[in-house]
Amino acid sequence: MRIAALALAAVVLAGCGRMETPEQQAARMQAETDSAHAAVAEGNARWARYVTAGQIDSLGLLFVADGVAMPPNVPGATGRDSIVARLRPFLIPGGTLTLTNQSFAAHGPIAVARGIFAYTAPAQGRTPAVDVRGKYLEHWHKTDAGWLLAETTWNTDAPTPPPPPPAR
């Protein structure tokens, strides 16, 4: 009985490793954020390069297999192929995308980025020039292939159209 009690006490004490102080926890989380930030910034740079170069099919490479994109004013898309198909109509040849990160945090294999974007494209035929600005929110996962987008959503800073007149 005494040996069993000692064994149980040893197991309990082994499981009660030193807890982090708030300062240690903050330092660890900052180190995780710093480590992930460069990789996620490169992912966003690739996103902008693909759009600017017209390499729309490459956008799927930025997402986990079951990733989700939620563009404004259309249904969301799940999965790489669906995401590429959903984004294709948004992009105009000759357009330029700029992403500016404003906030970033990571904890273990999960990171969240928030920022602003600008998308411009020249007029083409009957299509007028485009100058869209807005904000985005991204949820990234660290995978065996590196940091990939799990979910992203964005919207523009354009004013909301006025409501329709009341029915008579």
Write the layout of secondary structure elements.
Layout: H1 2-15, H2 22-53, E1 63-70, E2 77-78, H3 80-87, E3 96-107, E4 110-121, E5 130-143, E6 146-156
Parallel strand pairs: 1-6
Antiparallel strand pairs: 1-2, 3-4, 4-5, 5-6
CATH architecture classification: Roll
Low-confidence stretches: none
Number of DSSP-assigned strands: 6
Structural class of the helix and strand makeup?
A: alpha+beta
- Rg, rounded, reads 23 Å
Strand-residue proportion: 35-45%
Number of helices: 3
Characterization of the model:
With 168 residues, the protein is of the alpha+beta class. The protein has a single domain (32-153), classed as Nuclear Transport Factor 2, Chain: A (Roll). The chain has three helices and six strands. The chain has helices at residues 2-15, 22-53, 80-87; strands spanning 63-70, 77-78, 96-107, 110-121, 130-143, 146-156. Strands 2-1-6-5-4-3 form a six-stranded mixed β-sheet. A hairpin with a 6-residue loop joins strand 1 (63-70) and strand 2 (77-78). The mean pLDDT is 88.
